[in-house]
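To illustrate the input format used throughout this study, we show a single complete record. The first block contains the structure-token representation of the backbone; no residue identities are included at this stage. The design step must infer an amino acid for every position from geometry alone.
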């Protein structure tokens, strides 16, 4: 089994943060050596990653829709603009039965992108997934800390901006990933 940097980032970092926070806030937990604590952190991170994936549709609601669908409809965000929307749509309409189904069109583009040798698609996907996991990790940390320190205003002053910045970066990363898939599809079709 080969671990990639994505596995380390998306499992170990969030898991370690949550594990350390639980260790600091819950009284009476045994002190665990570094290797077992890393294993525990990895398992916690694994489940945080799974939950963040399950909550993706809710996250897309907060974004104003799926980034892939929005880009295909011509709805860009400030930092991520997709200029080739009409070209991609015309090519994708030839490959799908229902030409008004952006989800199906993006699935076709993603199939091409995943079969390509373009590592950028995989990297953009990993960065987006890490951003999503980090956002959920901050929300979990905020909930745990709020239960313990609900009357400390500094908690809110620090955590709310961190969560909002993380949400914004997650949104941008999801759009970057969707744009990279569509750009890769267009490049492959034009070759």
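Output of the design step:
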């Amino acid at each position: 089994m080969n671990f990639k940097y994505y596995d380390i980032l998306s499992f170990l970092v969030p898991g370690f943060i949550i594990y350390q926070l639980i260790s600091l806030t819950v009284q009476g937990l045994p002190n665990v050596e570094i290797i077992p604590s890393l294993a525990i952190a990895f398992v916690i991170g694994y489940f945080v990653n799974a939950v963040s994936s399950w909550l993706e549709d809710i996250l897309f609601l907060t974004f104003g829709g799926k980034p892939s669908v929005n880009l295909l409809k011509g709805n860009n965000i400030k930092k991520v603009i997709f200029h080739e929307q009409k070209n991609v749509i015309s090519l994708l309409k030839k490959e799908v039965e229902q030409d008004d189904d952006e989800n199906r069109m993006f699935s076709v583009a993603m199939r091409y992108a995943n079969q390509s040798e373009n590592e950028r698609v995989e990297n953009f996907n990993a960065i987006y997934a890490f951003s999503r996991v980090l956002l959920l990790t901050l929300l979990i940390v905020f909930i745990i800390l709020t239960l313990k320190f609900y009357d400390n205003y500094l908690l809110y002053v620090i955590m709310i901006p961190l969560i909002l910045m993380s949400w914004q970066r997650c949104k941008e990363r999801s759009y970057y990933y969707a744009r990279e898939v569509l750009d890769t599809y267009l490049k492959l079709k034009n070759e």
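Structural context for interpreting the output: The CA atoms of residues 142 and 159 lie 6 Å apart. Helices lie at 5-25, 34-54, 56-63, 67-72, 85-93, 102-115, 119-149, 153-190.
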